[in-house]
Structures are given as C-alpha cells and as structure tokens.
C-alpha cells in the first residue's frame, strides 16, 4: 500500500518536474522573442532615420550583402509581424535557427 | 518572487508571535533581493548609456581629420601602425544583423535614438526598484511590530471551505411551476398496476432501500407531507414520499377493485400513506402474515382510509391467518405489532428495523430508536407506543380525544366522513343514554383495557369469516352497542376530566366495536 502511494507520488513528482521544464523552456523562448521584438523595433526606427544616401547591408554569415533601404524596411517589418504572431500564439520558434536573420 | 514570499507567513506553524518573525524576515529578504536585482540592472544600463555618450563624442570628433595615424590592434597582443580613413563613413549595426552605412552625423543621430531607448529602460527599472523598496520598508515595519510583540495583533479570519450544503434541503421552485405533477403519475400508476406482477420480497426490499437512500438525499420527507404522488414506475424516489393523498386513495380504489394487491407492490411502497394501507394487502397476498404497519399513518389519512382498511380485511381474510389487520386504523397498529412478522413494509426500512427491535426488546428499545427514525408525522405515531398488558398499544393523539370528536372540528383521525358521522351520532345518542352513567365510568375505565384485549382477540375471529365492506350503518352500531353497554359509553364528553385518558381507549373500543360488530351483524344478516 505504501509502495503504491510512493510510486504514485513519484509519478506525480516527475510530471511536475516535466511541467516545470516545459514552463522554463516556454519562458526562455518568450524572453528571446521579446528581445527580438524590441531589437527589430529599434532597427525599424533607425531605418526610418536613414535616407537614400546610406547603403544598407545585411549580414549573412561572413558576408555583408547590400540591401536597399526600402527592401530593408519591408523585411524588418515582416520580421516584426512574424515575431508578434509568434508571441501571440505562445509558441517558441527555433531559437537557434532564426529564419529572418539569415 | 512575491508568491513564495507571501505564502511564507501563512505556511508556518510557529504559533508564538502572530506575525511570525522568521517568515517576515524571509519576506524581507526576498524583497531585498528584488531590489538589488533592479539596482544591478540599472547600473548596467547606466554603463551602456555612458558608452553611448562616449561614442557620440568620438563620432563628433572623428570627421575633423581626413585620416588618423593609429596603432591598429592586431589580435589580443599586437598592434600595428595604420591609418584611419574615410572618417565620415560609419557602418552602423542597426540590430538583428542589419547594417547601414552612414555619415558620422547620421550615426550620432542613431546613437541618440538608442540612448533614448536605454533611458527608457533605466526609468522602468528605477520604478520597479522604488516599488520594492517601499515593500521592504513595510516588511521592516512588520518585523519591528512582531519583535515588539506587544499591542499589535494580526487579525485573521479563516474561511472554512468545507462547509457543505446538504443536498436540496429546500427546493426553490419557479413561481408558476408545479413542484409535483401528481396527475401524470396517477395515470402511470394505473397502467403500472395493470401490468404489475408479483414481485419477490427481496426486490421489494432492495427497492425500498434504494428509495430510502434517495429520500435521504433529497430530504423531502419533512418538507412536503401534504401531497403524495403515486408513481407506478418506481422511478421517482423522493417525490414518491410526498404523494397526493387523494391520488393514492383513488389509485388504491382502482387497484383494490381490479387487481390483486400484490400487483401494487412496487407502486404502493413508495407512498407513505399507501404503505400502511396497501402493504397490508400486499403482505397478505405475499406472505400471508403481513402487518398493516403503515396504518400508523392512517391517523392522518383521508376519509378513504377506513375504506381501504376495509379492503385490507378482504385480503386478510383470504390469506392471513393470525391477525387482525382489521379495517380500523388503530386496531391494525396493535395487531400489526403483535404479529410481528413482516411488520413494516413501510416506506422506510429503518422503521421496520425499529419495530423489530421494539418487538424483540418488548418495549425496551422504545426510547433509543425514537430519534433516528422519526421523519414524518407518521413516524411519531409509530414510535410513541405504549405497552399495555405486554402488547404494544399506539398512543392516541390528543387530537383523537372524544372531546374533539364531539366538537365541531372534522377529520380528527382516520375517520371517514361517513363513519365519523356515524360515530358522532352514536356518541351523541350514547351520551344521551349514558348521561346518567357518569358514575359508572370509573369502573368501566378499568374494564376498557380488558375489553380492548378481548376485542383484539375477538377481531381475528371476525376477520376470517367474511369480507367487510367497510360500511357501518348506524342502526347496527346502536344495536351492536346495546349488548355491550359498558364498553363504548363510559367515556363521554360529560366527563371532561378523564377525556384524554379515557377517550383514547374508549375510542378504540368504540371503533373496534363498531366495525367488528358491524361485520358480525353483516354476517348474521
């Protein structure tokens, strides 16, 4: 009888721990998303400050790729939308592979 | 962070100080942690801000010269002399792997924009810190108070959430809705009766138990005693206890006329009223030795009760040997207990058990079982029983005293209208005759219990021979009374002093005599 209870307790504890892990994962993912959100907001604002004479580059790996200002702005805007959607859904995207940045 | 710290004061079991010093200290610690954390962040952001300031400065001075001779860092340990050219072209990292080539001034603008952001962050952190500092202060005050442990007392109210409401102690019905649908049940009952078959006793018992449980759950026994619904399908539980007396009666008449009593088993069991009356029939058919316990309820029965009791006599005569379920409401009670076999097919099994116990203990268990079993007025009648000559005599209620019979009030007891009138007439006639017999009342009183016993013994004999139609004609009553002048008359309103004592007994005797005699007379006739 006691063993049964202990086993049950063990199971419950494990469940709880699993839940806690999931929670922490979600939390960290959410935090990253939030950080990206703020960052992209800043980028958007700074892009707005620039004018056409500036050349905009995008870093893809070791390469700085030239981008147009308008294109850059659009891209950043899309990325922002994507991030907000992700936050709203509550799901964490792949934290390592960031499709918008590469 | 607040949650664990807040729970601390409640969790601890230390009783001495109301504010529980260790928990308060812990709370304070947690709060201070938050404060320090905020301070660290603020410092970090301030550093960032300083860096940006320095950058701005550099950017402002950088375009002064076309090129600078500098020592370029080459790895971590080496430098190399070099030139800084294109001093106005600055590649700014915008964030998220985006770069922009700007002039120095544009870069300054960007930096300024970033500094704005940093300042905002610092302000937020400062607000949080301030908030937590105030909390810390409060906790410090708490601590001081708890340390002082003097006049300040923590006020707490424990909410007991384990207070459970019993299921449906009162049912609030909608204003215009009928709580019970008696008419419908009546029809069902009729149908059921026709299709009913003999049920095994055990089934009955099981059903009774189930109903009892349901009753308890719904707890409607006490609240609704006026209406009784006869449910022919055994589906209703609590409601069955509250049945229309009228409907029961009607149904019963149908039953008695058309079908064997056993068929009514199911349905009748549910009704309080019917139980006593019908069960007698049922018992008669099934066991042959059943008692009409339910007749205890007959005290409050409607007018038809007596008629139904008469029907009981019908069945009894056929099957039952020992006793006298005789039509009279009072008699069967006594008789019922005497026979004691299946005493209760009452609506509640507990009552049965109580009765059995009572029989076994021969009156000793009277007081102990009163409390638990009383749920309905009928229970009271069943429980409050006197022991006369070793036999159980149900206590007559004061409502049934002679005085009341002679009064204007009606429906004092199980009396049917006809019989009541008959009795009344008889009593009046007797009173006229016996007005002078008041002196003899005392002697008669002593005889009465004996008479009652005699009556008891006589009754079975009368029960067996023929079926009693249930109608008592006044003439017969009078004539029957004449041979036994002493029995019925002694207690009359003329003797108000002994009313209550004598009236019960005399009533019983009178009633007994009336029906018994009437049956005898009918036999003769």
TrEMBL record, chain A:
Molecular-function GO terms, alphabetical: protein-folding chaperone binding; unfolded protein binding
Protein source organism: Sciurus vulgaris
Top-rank taxon: Eukaryota
Family per record: Belongs to the prefoldin subunit beta family.
Task of the protein: Binds specifically to cytosolic chaperonin (c-CPN) and transfers target proteins to it. Binds to nascent polypeptide chain and promotes folding in an environment in which there are many competing pathways for nonnative proteins.
One of the Pfam families matching this protein, by short name: Prefoldin_2
Keywords noted in UniProt: Chaperone, Coiled coil
Positions in coiled-coil regions: 2-36
A biological process term (GO) from this entry: protein folding
PANTHER family associated with the record: PREFOLDIN SUBUNIT 6 (PTHR21431:SF0)
Gene Ontology CC terms, in alphabetical order: cytoplasm; prefoldin complex
Protein name listed in UniProt: Prefoldin subunit 6
Subunit structure: Heterohexamer of two PFD-alpha type and four PFD-beta type subunits. Component of the PAQosome complex which is responsible for the biogenesis of several protein complexes and which consists of R2TP complex members RUVBL1, RUVBL2, RPAP3 and PIH1D1, URI complex members PFDN2, PFDN6, PDRG1, UXT and URI1 as well as ASDURF, POLR2E and DNAAF10/WDR92.
């Amino acid at each position: 009888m006691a063993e049964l209870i202990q086993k049950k307790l063990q199971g419950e504890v494990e469940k709880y721990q699993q839940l806690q892990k999931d929670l922490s994962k979600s939390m960290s993912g959410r935090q990253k998303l939030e950080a990206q959100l703020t960052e992209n907001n800043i980028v958007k604002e700074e892009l707005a400050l620039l004018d056409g004479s500036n050349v905009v580059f995008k870093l893809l790996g070791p390469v700085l790729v030239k981008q147009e200002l308008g294109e850059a702005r659009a891209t950043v805007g899309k990325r922002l939308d994507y991030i907000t959607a992700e936050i709203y859904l509550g799901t964490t995207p792949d934290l390592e592979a960031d499709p918008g940045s590469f | 962070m607040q949650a664990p710290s807040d729970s601390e004061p409640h969790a601890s079991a230390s009783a001495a100080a109301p504010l529980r010093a260790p928990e308060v200290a812990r709370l304070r610690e947690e709060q201070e942690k938050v404060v320090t954390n905020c301070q660290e962040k603020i410092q970090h952001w301030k550093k960032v801000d300083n860096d940006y300031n320095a950058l701005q400065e550099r950017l402002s001075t950088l375009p002064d010269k076309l090129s600078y001779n500098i020592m370029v860092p080459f790895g971590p340990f080496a430098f190399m002399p070099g030139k800084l050219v294109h001093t106005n072209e600055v590649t700014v990292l915008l964030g998220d792997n985006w770069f922009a080539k700007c002039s120095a001034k544009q870069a300054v603008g960007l930096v300024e924009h970033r500094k704005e952001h940093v300042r905002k962050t610092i302000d937020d952190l400062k607000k949080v810190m301030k908030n937590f500092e105030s909390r810390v202060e409060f906790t410090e005050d708490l601590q001081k108070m708890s340390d002082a442990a003097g006049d300040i007392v923590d006020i707490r109210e424990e909410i007991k959430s384990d207070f459970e409401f019993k299921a449906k102690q009162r049912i609030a019905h909608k204003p215009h809705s009928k709580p019970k649908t008696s008419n419908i049940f009546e029809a069902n009952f009729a149908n059921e009766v026709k299709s009913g078959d003999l049920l095994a006793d055990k089934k009955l018992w099981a059903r009774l138990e189930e109903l009892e449980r349901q009753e308890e759950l719904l707890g409607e026994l006490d609240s609704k005693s006026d209406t009784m619904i006869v449910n022919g399908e055994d589906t209703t539980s609590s409601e069955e206890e509250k049945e229309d007396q009228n409907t029961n009666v009607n149904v019963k008449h149908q039953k008695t006329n058309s079908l064997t009593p056993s068929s009514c088993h199911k349905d009748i069991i549910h009704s309080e009223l019917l139980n006593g009356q019908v069960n007698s029939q049922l018992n008669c058919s099934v066991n042959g030795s059943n008692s009409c316990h339910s007749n205890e309820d007959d005290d409050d029965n409607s007018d038809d009760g007596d008629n139904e009791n008469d029907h009981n006599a019908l069945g009894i005569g056929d099957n039952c040997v020992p006793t006298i379920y005789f039509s009279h409401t009072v008699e069967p009670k006594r008789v019922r207990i005497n026979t004691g076999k299946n005493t209760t097919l009452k609506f509640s099994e507990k009552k049965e058990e109580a009765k059995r116990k009572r029989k076994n203990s021969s009156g000793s268990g009277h007081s102990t079982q009163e409390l638990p079993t009383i749920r309905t007025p009928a229970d009271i009648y069943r429980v409050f029983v006197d022991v006369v000559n070793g036999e159980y005599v149900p206590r007559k209620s004061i409502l049934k005293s002679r005085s009341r019979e002679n009064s204007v009030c009606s429906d004092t007891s199980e009396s049917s209208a006809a019989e009541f009138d008959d009795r009344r007439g008889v009593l009046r006639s007797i009173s006229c005759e016996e007005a002078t017999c008041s002196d003899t009342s005392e002697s008669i009183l002593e005889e009465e219990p004996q008479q009652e016993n005699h009556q008891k013994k006589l009754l079975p004999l009368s029960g067996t021979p023929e079926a009693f139609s249930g109608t008592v004609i006044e003439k017969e009553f009078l004539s029957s009374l004449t041979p036994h002048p002493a029995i019925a008359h002694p207690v009359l309103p003329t003797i108000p002093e002994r009313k209550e004592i004598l009236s019960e007994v005399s009533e019983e005797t009178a009633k007994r005599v009336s029906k018994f005699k009437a049956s005898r007379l009918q036999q003769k006739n």
